[in-house]
Amino acid sequence: MKNEFEMSDMGLIHYFLGIEVNQNEGEIVISQQKYAHDLLKKFRMENASPCNTPMDANLKLCKDDIGEAVDPSLYRSLVGSLMYLTATRPDILFAVSMLSRFMTNPKRSHWEAGKRVLRYILGTINFGIYYKKVSESVMFGFCDSDWGGNVDDHKSTSGYVFSMGSGVFSWTSKKQSVVALSTTEAEYISLAAAGCQALWLRWMLKELKCIQKCETVLFCDNGSAIALSKNPVFHGRSKHIRIKYHFIRDLVKDGEVIVKYCKTQDQVADIFTKVLKFDLFVKFRGKLGVAQV
User: Rounded to whole angstroms, how far apart are CA atoms 89 and 91?
Assistant: First the structure.
């Protein structure tokens, strides 16, 4: 590239756009410790009491909360700052996604939930994502959904995560756009979303000369949704499902993805769809490669 462009070799990258990169023999660790410190200082939470999960498992947030209103600008600033932190902290993604649903008219309960995420960050401020050198570069993904978990409109939340080699590199948590009539439908919608992302990632990896020679495996913990992705079974219970979600069938038929079953206790994407109790949360956080730097 030096032959084509005027540039200077500054050596290995250590810091870029708030992301710290530590490269050791056989591994790379990315984190945002300085950014997290600045975030805690900005919201005066550097001396708060740490907590061990981002959200209370018994908390139910809703738009129609009758509590005290808080400053919308301050709340949006908090949520926006936390969103940037999810670049290296996928373990807080579900909590941040949940908080982002109340940007218009935030109440005291929403603000306190946001402060709890900051308290969790305080207790895990030196955490980041580990990537270790491996011989294989095969991409695979996990996708999951809750069912009707949103208190306001009873829509479900989809979550998926993709990994290649030893670390995760693409993840999301997003409320579905329609009300699912069953767990099968909710999981099927999540499969379709994960399938679209898998196809795009395969194209991107091809451009990077990292061609995926076999189907991308998507792990799902709902047998009925898996069956529906392969052929139009359960027609009486699935004929109402919107056409766009059947795109997953084409991906399976064309050999782009293959959907396989995994047990619920091994479903890593569960961390993106609901609030988990401490033991399960820590288990899945570890599977995401998030650990102390």
Answer: 5
What pTM, to 2 d.p., does this model score?
0.91
pLDDT in the model for residue 177: 93
SS3 138: coil
The two structure tokens encoding residue 22: 């530590």
What is the b/e burial string over 240-249, where b = at least 16 CB atoms within 10 angstroms of the residue's CB?
ebeeebeebb
Pairing of strands 216-220, 257-261: parallel
Q: Which amino acid is at 273?
A: T
Query: Would you call 93 exposed, middle or buried from its count of C-beta atoms within 10 A (0-12, 13-18, 19+)?
Result: buried
- Show me where the domains of the chain are located: 29-125, 135-275
Phi-psi region of 14 (alpha: psi -120 to 50; beta: other; left: phi over 0): alpha
For residue 236, with 0-12 CB atoms within 10 Å meaning exposed, 13-18 middle and 19 or more buried, which class applies? exposed
- Which among 88, 77, 93, 80 has a CA at the least distance from the CA of 15? 88
Q: How many CB atoms lie within 10 A of CB 17?
A: 8
Q: What is the mean pLDDT of residues 191-196?
A: 96
Fold of 135-275: Nucleotidyltransferase; domain 5 (3.30.420)
According to the model, what pLDDT value does residue 235 have?
Answer: 61
The residue assigned the tokens 């908090």 is: 78
Q: Which residues contact 185 (CB under 8 A, 6 or more apart)?
A: 238, 241
